[in-house]
Amino acid sequence: MSIPPINLIYFLYGLAFFSMGLLVMVEGGRSSDARLRRALRPLAAFGLVHAANEWIELYVLAAPLGQPISGWLSGLRLAMLAFSFVSLAGFGSYLLATSPAVSRLILVVPLGLETVWVFGLFILRGKYPAPLIWDIADVWTRYSLAIPAATLKVCTASPETAR
């Protein structure tokens, strides 16, 4: 029996994020910049939680055809996906905090994104049939959390941050 290529891709994708999260968690405390040390904690959380999310997705894909996936597993996967992207936004917002006055507002960005995400889920609830709502919620999570969090991370990546 051969492994479908998509299963191998999900496994390696999860392994890459797990390795990144583990490496950042182990080596992140060695930075001389206190701001970067604080920022690396949510990045490690992003890697580890996103890896677990991808491996749950692999488990769902490996399930025999026709076997229904329980709602709690779909809910857990969606919550883990959202938490991983909120952690990525936390990483970017920590890097934006250049002064003590701004550092008090660090949580505003991730909490704002999470508020938009939850509000969107409430709007989507009940508008689609049960099996389809999980796919729609997954797409909503990626649009409302992943894209802004990744953009925030890219916008904060500057030569000053690398020092």
Structural class determined from secondary elements: mainly alpha
SSE succession: HHHHHHH
For the residues shown, what is the average pLDDT? 86
Strand content: under 5%
Globular, elongated, flat, extended or rod-shaped: what is the shape? flat
Count the beta strands: 0
Helical amount:
over 70%
CA-CA gap between termini: 49 Å
Report on this structure.
The protein has one domain. The protein is mainly α and 163 residues long. The chain has helices at residues 5-27, 34-62, 71-96, 100-103, 108-124, 130-156, 159-162. The chain contains seven helices and no strands. The longest helix is centred in the first third of the chain and has 29 residues, at 34-62.
Layout of SSEs?
Elements: H1 5-27, H2 34-62, H3 71-96, H4 100-103, H5 108-124, H6 130-156, H7 159-162
Brief write-up:
This protein is mostly helical and 163 residues long. The protein is built from 7 helices and no strands.
For the structure shown, list the relevant keywords.
163 residues; mainly alpha; 80% helix; 0% strand; flat
